[in-house]
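Field reference: "sequence" (input) and "structure" (output). Example, DUF5805 domain-containing protein:
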Amino acid sequence: MPEETNRTVVKTYIPEYQKDEWRSHADELDMSQSEFVRTMVQAGRRGFEINPAQTSEGGSNPRGDELKTRLLETLASEEKMSWDELVERLAGNFEDRLENALNELQSANRVQYSGRHGGYTLVGGVDGRT
């Protein structure tokens, strides 16, 4: 992952109901809206093949194939689903995993949330040492 240096603004226009849903989800996760959107975009990108040449035909492709399998299973359980319904169903698993991981790391005092600074911070470095 590239080093974080300068930040820039990204703007998009979405329906008001969608912003309300995102705000609600962000609040449930104690995240800012920006942090929530950034996290969800990154999570979604992990599920799509960016460079098909990097995948092997006969080998495992846990990110691409897993998403395809989950998508097929989800669609098999319903007659039809909208884009928003699919995103909510498939992203929900990520949100649960993220929340569990954050809770475990906070319990182990490896990550802490700072309301003052508006986000999560690492305690003691990646390896747990200062």
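The chain is about 50% helix and 5% strand.
Confidence is low (pLDDT under 50) at residues 49-63.
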